[in-house]
Please model this.
Amino acid sequence: MPIVTVRDLKRTYQQGQLEVHALRGVDLDIEAGEFTALMGPSGSGKTTLLNQIGALDTPSSGSVLVDGRELAGMTKAQLSALRLNRLGFVFQAYNLIPVLTAYENTEFVLMMRGMPQAERRERVMRTLAAVGLEGMEHRRPAELSGGQQQRVAVARAIVGEPALVLADEPTANLDSKTGNDLIALMRRLNAEQGITFVFATHDPKVMEAATRVVDMVDGEVSSDTRK
Model:
């Protein structure tokens, strides 16, 4: 069974008197272990699709299954539990908690799960080392570069060993070298740990690294290529 199954997914917004069709009947399966890039211009629907898969928004019609579960049939508490236990998120703006250290930002997901402290520490330190932040665990976001902050965001996304990581323009605020390093890091995590990644991105470097590229135009999938 695919880790994500999308069928005839539509999302329509009302902007004043204007009806905006962000998604127009999208069909898509994501297999476990894929490194997929959703490509397309602004307004193509890629971020809207990512938000649907991440249970951050609800469809106007159609269905989304994640990890074999139909999102539309789940309560708010069940959706929250799904996001906490099975999904990881990496955002363009990092979304770190400013007063917390790199260690504490990464640990937060595990604390929410109620994991014992000793197990949390082992998991956090191993994850920070995996993303190249060993020795920086006590630094707060303001004491880290943009690339280092995004590495903390990746650590937070993967520390809970999720089934799926969703990344929305994760390289957009980074210089080209830092962005390339981050892509290489996530590709390595995909290859070595089998983590499934889905990106919404404009970055051609992500497209080059991806094992699958889904092009979107005007809320529809225009092409779907596996390498």
About this structure: The mean pLDDT is 94. The chain has one domain: 4-226.
